[in-house]
Amino acid sequence: MKIPLIATLSPKTRDLRTGELKTLITRNGKKEGVVVPYKPYYYVPDKRGESYTCTGRPESIKLSKVYYNPGDIIPTNALRDGGREHLLDRLCIEHPEFFYDYPNDEPVKSLCFDIETHSPDGSFPFGEKYPIVAIGIATSEGKEEVLVWKDESDKQLLLDFAECIRKHNPDIIYGYNLTGYDIPQILHRANFHGLTEYKKLLNRDVSSFGWEQYSQVDKRAASALKMKAGGRIILDLLRWTRLDYSLSGLPRGLKSVSRAFGLEPIELELSIKNILEYSEKEINEYVMSDVYCTKYLFEHYYPQIEYTAEILGVPLDVYVNAPVSYITKILQGRALFKEGTVSFDFNKERHDDIFHSDRGNFQAAHIELYKPGFQQHNYKVDFTSMYPSIAMALNLGPDTTCFVDSEEYKNEIDCEKGKKETFIYVPDNIINKRLKVRVDLSKKSCLYNMSKRFNEMREPYKKIKTKEAKSKSNALKIMVNTFYGANTNPYMAYGDLSVGITITAVARWLIQTAAQLIRTQKGEDSVVYIHTDGINTNVDINIKWLNNRLKQLMRVHFPGCEPEWIQVEKERYREGVWLQIGNYVLRNEDGTLTKHGSTFKSRARSKFYLKVLDRLIDARLNNTITQNFIDELYSLEEYELDDFLQRRSMNMPYEDYKNENDLMVQLIRQGLEIGIQPIVGNTYPYFKTKGGYRISQVVKNKADIDVRYHWNVISSLLQKFKLETWIKKDPPITIIDEKQQTLMDYI
C-alpha cells in the first residue's frame, strides 16, 4: 500500500520539547512520530496586504498571512483557509506527496466478524440485557471460526473474541453494520459484565476504542457512525453499499445486498423462532453464512477504497472515516491552494439567502413520468457522467465560477460570451430568480483538469476485463462523480454553490432538449420517463444522430463551450411496467428484472405482499392478465399465518412519539403488556387483524387476519399497475363474516 494505515495530526501531537508539529503515523503494525513540513497560519484583513481571490466572490480581498503555533491565542478577526483549523486536512492539501514517503509496505491484515444476539422477550436485541450467542470470524490469512456462548453467560465469549483480535492482530476490522450494531452491542455486554478495560483488549496501542458521531460540520456525511480502535481501522461495509449507485432502489440489508451480488445467504426466521431454538450447527452455519457474504463484499469494495486513498495520497483511515465530500474537499482544496485562492466560509454562510435549510433550497434535476403503464419495448438513453461532463463543457469550477447578479425569474437559460468570461443566466423556480453566473475563461477550471485527468486514467482500465481493473475503473468514476454533490454541500468550503446550480440547470436543459429531439423524430408518445440524466423510451434511438444534434445545439446555445464532452449511450431492455415516478420494473435482456422504487422494497413488507407483487409483475410483463389470473390473485387459500406478518421499527425514544394513534405507539404499548421494553432499534412484528393491529406474539390463528385489509392490498397493487378495470371491490361475505364461515373453514 502506497500510503500509511493511519495518521493523526493535532495540537496534541506537537513535540513539547522542540515545539515541532508532528504527525503520528501507523504503518507496518507500528507507530512513529514524523515532523511535518506544514506550519499553521491564518489571515487577517489588511489594506496594505496581498490581494487574494476568494471562493464564490467576484471581488478580491487584501490580507496578511500570520503563522502561529497550535494552542496559541488567535485574534477574533483571524480568517482560516477552509473555515476552521484542521491540521491534517491542510497537510494533505498543501503537501500532497507527504504521505507517499511513509507507505504500509507489508500486506494489510484484516479480520471480519458478525454476531448473533439472543432476545428472550422477542424485541430487537440491542442493549446490555441481550446476550451474544455467537461470533463468526474470518481473517485474511484464511482462519475461520465461530465463538459460541457455552454456559449461562456470554462473558467468556467476549474475552475469547478479544483474544482472537490480539492473536490475529489485524490492521482492519470489518463487518456489516458493525459500527451501528455489532461493536456497540459487544461493548454493551462488556459493560454488563463489568469489563471496564475491555476496549483496551481490542486495541493495538493505548488509544481509545469507541464510537462517535461526525462533527457538527460534517454531520450530513453518510449520517453514520465512525470508529476508532487504537492502531486499527474499523471499516463498515454498510456505508459503502449505501454509496453504491448500482444498488439503487434495493434495501441495504446484508441479505438483500448479498443476493444482488448473486450470493445465497442462509435465512433463519428469527421473528417467529428464537435463535436458541436452533441447533448449534444451524447457528454456526447461519453466522458463518453472514461472514462469508460480508467477506465477499469486502473483497469487492476494499480494492476501490485502498486505490482511492492512494490516488488522494492520504492515510487509509482518513479516507475510510471521511464524509462523502472528502475527495472533492482535498482535490479542490489543492487546486485552490495552488492558484492562491482562499476559502474562508462554508457554502451555507456564503449563500445564506439560498440555503434556507441544512440541505439547501434550489431547483432539482428534471424528473417526469410521461407514459405510466405497460411498455412492450424499452430503451434507455443515458448521459455519460452527465454532471462532470457539463462542468468540463462549460469550464465550471470553484476557481472560475461565481454568482454576480440576479433578475426576475424567467424559465430560459441563456449565455453571453465575452473574450475572457462567459455569463450564464440560470433560471431557478425555487429561488424564484434567474441567476447571473460568471465563468472565467482565462484558465481551465480545476474541475475541468481533474475530471479530464481521471477520465484519461480510467480509459485503459475500462478495456481490461479483470477484477482489479474494474475496481480501479469504478474508483476513478466515483471520484469524478463526487464533485457535483460536494459543490452543493452547505458545509463545503473548497467549493461553491454557483457550480452546482449551474450544472443542474444545464442538465435540465440538456435532458429536456434530448427528449424533445426524440419526440420530434419518433412521435410524442415515444418518451416514457425522464430521471436526471436518463431518458426511457419505447422506441429504438439512433445514438449517433442524437449525439451530433446535442453537440450542435450546445455550440449554438453556449458559445465557446466544448460540446465534445457531452455524450449519450443506449441500453436495451425487454418489457417494462411504469407505476409512478421512481417506481418501475424492467425485464433485462438476460431475463432478470430491474426493480426500482418503494413499491418493490421488501424490508417492512409481508410475504403476502411480496408474493402478490411477484405474481403481478410476472403476469404484467408477460401481458397475461386474464380473469382467471385475477380470481387466483384474490384467493387467500395458499397463504399461511406467517405470510401476513409485517414489521415496524422504533427509530426514536418512546416518549418522542407524540401521536397516540401512531402504529408504533400501539405496538410499543402491546409489547409492554407482555414485558417487551421499548428500546430504540426494536423491531415489532405484527399482524393486521379484524380487531386492529396486533403484535405477533398475541395472534395465533389465521382466522383473526383482517381479510378486507389484505384484499385491498391486492386492489391497491392492481391500481398501481394501471389495472383498475380488474379490481374486485369487495371480498365475499363468507370470508369476512365468521358467523357464516371462518377464514380457516373457507380455506
Task: Give the gist of this structure.
With 747 residues, the protein is of the alpha+beta class.
Distance between termini?
Answer: 64 Å
Main CATH class of the largest domain: Alpha Beta
Number of DSSP helical runs = 21
Give the strand order of the largest sheet, numbering strands 1, 2, ... along the chain: 8-7-6-9-12
Describe this structure in words.
There is one protein chain. This protein has 747 residues and is an alpha+beta fold. It folds into 4 domains: 6-104, no CATH class; 110-312, Nucleotidyltransferase, domain 5, CATH 3.30.420.10; 328-578, Alpha-Beta Complex (Palm domain of DNA polymerase); 604-746, B family DNA polymerase, thumb domain (Topoisomerase I, Chain A, domain 4), CATH 1.10.132.60. The strands form 8 sheets. The protein has a 5-stranded mixed β-sheet with strand order 8-7-6-9-12, with helices on both faces. The chain has a 5-stranded antiparallel β-sheet with strand order 14-21-22-16-23, with helices on one face. Strands 15-24-25-26 form a 4-stranded antiparallel β-sheet, with helices on one face. Helix 13 (467-488) crosses helix 14. The relative contact order is 0.09. Mean pLDDT is 88; it is low at 213-224.
What's the SSE blueprint?
Layout: E1 6-8, E2 22-27, E3 30-35, E4 41-54, E5 61-67, H1 87-94, E6 110-117, E7 132-139, E8 144-148, H2 155-168, E9 172-175, H3 178-192, H4 198-202, E10 209-213, E11 225-229, E12 233-236, H5 237-242, H6 254-260, H7 280-312, H8 316-320, H9 326-339, E13 341-342, H10 347-350, E14 367-369, E15 373-375, E16 378-383, H11 386-394, E17 401-408, E18 414-417, E19 421-428, E20 433-440, H12 446-463, H13 467-488, H14 497-522, E21 527-531, E22 534-537, H15 543-557, E23 568-573, E24 576-580, E25 583-587, E26 593-596, H16 607-621, H17 627-634, E27 646-649, H18 663-673, E28 683-689, E29 692-695, H19 707-720, H20 733-736, H21 743-746
Parallel strand pairs: 4-13, 6-9, 9-12
Antiparallel strand pairs: 1-2, 2-3, 4-5, 6-7, 7-8, 10-11, 14-21, 15-24, 16-22, 16-23, 17-20, 18-19, 19-20, 21-22, 24-25, 25-26, 27-28, 28-29
Helix pairs in contact: 1-9, 7-13, 9-13, 11-12, 11-14, 12-13, 13-14, 16-19
